Amino acid sequence: MSDQRPSLTERRKATTQQEIALAAARLFAEHGAAGCTAEAIARAAGVSLRTFYRYFRTKEDAVAPLLSGGVRHWVTELALSPPELSVPEALEHSARIALSPSAAYPAATFEWVRGLLRITPTEPDLLAVWHRVHHESELALAPVLGTLAGHGADPLELRLAAAAANTAMRVALETWAETADPPERIAELGARCIRELTAGLRLWA
User: Fold this and answer.
1) Which residues does 68 contact at the CB level (< 8 Å), separation at least 6?
2) Average of pLDDT values for 131-137?
3) How many CB atoms lie within 10 A of CB 59?
4) pLDDT in tens, 34-62
């Protein structure tokens, strides 16, 4: 069996990207996207401007690793769902895990995401990054749902299920971000949104 673990170089790259993303999120939340520069983000992250642009095309792109980390976690957990769970149960189960603070995605990270989501509606370039992250999530969800649903699942139903589940997670995070609730409250909200948005789908009717 081949070793599928990331190489040391890949892990270092991911760490650097995450450090830049956290620095960008902090500066954006404090000053808005217009109030900070790529140079300021690079300086706050402790990297050179050349390194910044090696990883990110624009200053707004720098927050993508922070926003997509939870999405990747969710898709991974969904693929690893216990076989005794139905597809709707697997969606809820994986959402609860992905939306709960953990060592890989601590409560402080959710707080940085909250700060970003609060300013995103008035920052078009940040909004574009947020929507891109969720579009990529939707594309990643469909094949995983297809595997869980089994052979013969309608491709259209799979796309609809992926779109509904993805929208549920997005709405849960955006709704939570508007409140002062602690990160520990997101998981239940996410499970509720998935339950209500996917309840009528024929894929598992």
Assistant:
1) 133, 136, 137
2) 94
3) 23
4) 899 999 999 999 999 999 999 999 999 99
Q: Looking at the predicted structure, is the pLDDT value of residue 4 above 90?
A: no
Distance of CA 132 to the CA centre of its chain: 10
Burial of 112 per CB tally in 10 Å (0-12, 13-18, 19+): buried
How much is the average pLDDT of 10-16?
Answer: 89
Give pTM, 2 decimals: 0.89
Tokens of 17: 């990207």
Percent of the chain topping pLDDT 70 = 96
Q: What is the 3-state secondary structure (H, E, C) of the chain?
A: CCCCCCCHHHHHHHHHHHHHHHHHHHHHHHHCHHHCCHHHHHHHHCCCHHHHHHHCCCCHHHHHHHHHHHHHHHHHHHHCCCCCCCHHHHHHHHHHHHCCCCCCCCHHHHHHHHHHHHHHHHCHHHHHHHHHHHHHHHHHHHHHHHHHHCCCCCHHHHHHHHHHHHHHHHHHHHHHHCCCCCHHHHHHHHHHHHHHHHCCCHHHC
Q: Give tens-digit pLDDT for 110-123.
A: 999 999 999 999 99
